[in-house]
């Protein structure tokens, strides 16, 4: 499947391991991992950042193989899940940055065009999240 607003095909990716059991080198218990996740979420980290920290600093490659549930599910169970989904949040952040840039550089036609593309991605994602009930129907 190709990219939405460019020519890239995006076929290169890492494959998940077939075995769903935790690797032998992971000695951390599921309760400890959940505690680490909730502690990081209380500090204000996003689910993807939590996963990177667990992988790089604590040697936990996949949270689901250790705990049995994904990071976002654990956060929802503890009431710490972000209000809007992470990908939508970062697209909105990007659109705000482009708008700020356009205030200073009014003649930047390329940025104006890129802003249109980013905003169309935001609307498309928002429509999907409203349909799957992850966002309220009145969200704008």
Automatic annotation (TrEMBL):
GO biological process: translation
Phosphoprotein listed as a keyword: no
Domain Small ribosomal subunit protein uS15 N-terminal per the UniProt entry, residue ranges: 1-60
Xref: InterPro entries: Ribosomal_uS15, Ribosomal_uS15_arc_euk, Ribosomal_uS15_N, uS15_NS1_RNA-bd_sf
GO molecular function: small ribosomal subunit rRNA binding; structural constituent of ribosome
Any Pfam family the entry gives: Ribosomal_S13_N
Protein family: Belongs to the universal ribosomal protein uS15 family.
Name this protein carries in UniProt: Small ribosomal subunit protein uS15 N-terminal domain-containing protein
